[in-house]
Amino acid sequence: MLNVNNSNSGKIRKIVLLAVIMAFIALQCVFIYGILSVINSSSSAMVAPSIQRDATEEVFVKKYLELVKDCKPAFPESLYLKNKKTFDYPAILAANMETVENRIIKLLDPDQNDTIGVILKDSRVLFGEEYSLWIVRSISGLLREYAMKKIASGETKKAISAVNSMFSLSILALRGLGGMKLVMTHLTADLIMSYSIKTMDDVLNSKIGISSEDYAKFYSRLQYQSKLFSDYFDCLSDETSGNLFYMSSFYSSNDYRGYATSVTNMYVMKFIVASMETYYGRVAEHYQRYMSKAISLRATPYRELIKKLAELSKPYDKINQATIYLYAILNSETNPVVFQVIPDFEKFYYHHAYSKMKMNAGLIRLILREKTAAGIKTPANIESISSIPELKAHPELFNDYFSESKLRVIESPTGEVIIYSVGTDGKDDGGKFTRAENPQSAKAYRVNPGSFADIDCQDIKL
């Protein structure tokens, strides 16, 4: 029989404990706020890690940042189609055709600007400055619209120039932001790369003539980008280093820019974070420990990896699903601030693996299309395709990161060879695709995680 007295006594003890803890935190808040109020105003502002650039790079970076800034007015909120979650690119292109041809493409197409070709041959961090990745993504969408327009009018070279410029944008996103490489820079690069490959395929599928030289250039640029493409766990390492820097700068800075909308808001943020650290421990230490757990899974096979990445989300899910939210927060072993900083490891892995396979499939298709153009029939099985001399030396292109085996192929009714992955469930459904063939649209952060539910148990067309 349930002992009612003991049960009630336990509840009372918990309530008293909760009240004591809250009172303690309140006192700490007052104490910390008092300290923050008298912090010397000469505290150093956040300064990004030092970036070494030569004279050529300095000139290019200045032009590139000016271009991104100048392009911002071209993407007003009034032209954003909320129902389609994209801009009205035809209207934007009509109003900015000269900018696209005489500024964007002239700066970013290696065939028109030798400097960008040199800039792209390095993978170190190039940008110590902050700039809008949203505008960069929007520029890539505008370039795609331009390419499609030129395909329709049969202007091959101009369409190819747009694709080249899109590849450049993707690689530049990999060169960092604010002196660091972060998950958001990798995600931006992945997304633009996906646009680039799709647009390249549209060029190759068109009736306009593509020379052997064009095939070779596409392959060379995509192959180079594949080499720059960071391993998933390297991305997490970059993210860890970047966020630890920001965390350390947060405490030493009185410059609210980059942290809050005003000085007052920054002080409020500081006293909240400091109060939570009094109770839970240092955010940076908890964050580094959490990220290290994910990074330590580097050699783990796919199925086990996904389970362990999902387990890292359980403490957050436990808090989010708790009946008494505040009590769950107070009982958390990890500082809850950490959950607002870490990426959703599982969904980021899906996104990253898809991006890598999309890039590899693009390289495979380039070889196959060139042979088809030369009158050589494409084999309809992956073993024969992987034995083609140009591809035999690169077996890694055929890895399916969702199954630990090779990618699959099927032949469409029109004779097209379709390359696909078995999808996140690791099962081959014979090339059955859902409407969500492109999981690039899913967000990889827990604060807005998106969903891969509509591609689970289905194959993914690459």
What is the element layout, followed by pairings?
Layout (H helix, E strand, L loop, with lengths): L3 H34 L17 H17 L8 E2 L4 E2 L1 H20 L5 H6 L13 H20 L3 H18 L9 H23 L6 H17 L3 H21 L10 H18 L2 H13 L6 H10 L2 H7 L4 H7 L13 H29 L8 H5 L2 H4 L6 E2 L4 E2 L1 E4 L5 E5 L38 E2 L1
Antiparallel strand pairs: 1-2, 3-4, 5-6, 6-7
Helix pairs in contact: 1-10, 3-5, 3-6, 5-6, 5-7, 6-7, 6-8, 7-15, 8-15, 9-11
Helices, by number, come to: 17
Percent of residues in helices comes to 55-70%
Strand order of the largest sheet: 5-6-7
Q: Return the string of H and E elements.
A: HHEEHHHHHHHHHHHHHHHEEEEE
Nearest-angstrom radius of gyration?
26 Å
CA(first)-CA(last) distance: 61 Å
Unreliably modeled segments: 1-8, 30-47, 435-457
Q: Structural class per helix/strand content? A: mainly alpha
Main β sheet profile: 3 strands, antiparallel
What would the principal axes of the Cα set say about the shape? globular
**Roughly what is the average pLDDT, rounded to an integer?**
78
Strand content: under 5%
Give the number of DSSP strands.
Answer: 7
